[in-house]
């Protein structure tokens, strides 16, 4: 795979690389992307309608069941070459005394399974659930919940510890992500439709702060027009090749 020599030069010169990933990075692991049409029992639902506090208030059973199925699916999945290449990239950057910040909108924990560290989860995690009364967070790696919604044991029920439409991002993660985007030398947006703010704004912030910007995505997005380098294709193919081209001297 051939890459623009200017891009490789910018990546090699970069002291700080920041990467934002979206559902496209996990698609090749068998995790459906957010905007893929739902199938089977869920075909009649719109994911944008299910991922809201209002939906949970109106129909907690359906929303809990949907997230629990997604939780069980991601627990069965393994990282693909895209995740593994990003983890390798971070380790090589750190070895060279540089920084590499991985920001993800994904709630599947596959970056961490691949070996990435200090991953900034701006949309939370499906593996964690939170008591609606106390806010206490529990990690759920077991089988399907016996009830929907599942009683928390503390007078509330469990809701997924993810960010729903209309909710604020976790403060610390949002701050760390903005800081990384604002101070990096190269910013890469990978496998995201670049539609959901504030995450979709990080590429603009990086660009206006002087970073070289890159997009790797299967389809064009609103970010495609503004980035310095756009590569259309699969993350699981392009990212490993790019890391190889960067590492090879
Ligand atoms: P989307 O489902 O919106 O977009 C996935 C993107 O990945 C699309 O642009 C696809 O073209 C692209 N894609 C699919 N397969 C790919 C592959 N193998 N390689 C590269 N690209 C591929 O997912 P996100 O952008 O992550 O938030 O969605 C952003 C947020 O919207 C989600 O975190 C979720 C949703 O609302 C919340 O729930 C708050």
Helices, strands, pairings?
Layout: H1 5-13, E1 16-21, H2 24-27, H3 47-50, H4 53-58, H5 60-76, H6 81-95, E2 99-104, H7 110-114, E3 120-121, E4 124-131, E5 137-139, E6 158-162, H8 171-183, E7 186-190, H9 202-208, E8 212-217, E9 229-232, H10 235-247
Helix pairs in contact: 1-10, 6-10, 8-9
The structure holds 2'-O-acetyl adenosine-5-diphosphoribose.
2'-O-acetyl adenosine-5-diphosphoribose binds at residues 22-24, 27-28, 33-35, 51, 105, 123, 163, 191-193, 195-196, 217-219, 221, 234-236.
Summarize the structure.
The chain is an alpha/beta fold. The protein has helices spanning 5-13, 24-27, 47-50, 53-58, 60-76, 81-95, 110-114, 171-183, 202-208, 235-247; strands spanning 16-21, 99-104, 120-121, 124-131, 137-139, 158-162, 186-190, 212-217, 229-232. The strands form two sheets. It has a six-stranded parallel beta sheet with strand order 3-2-1-7-8-9, sandwiched between helices. A three-stranded antiparallel beta sheet has the order 5-4-6, with helices on one face.
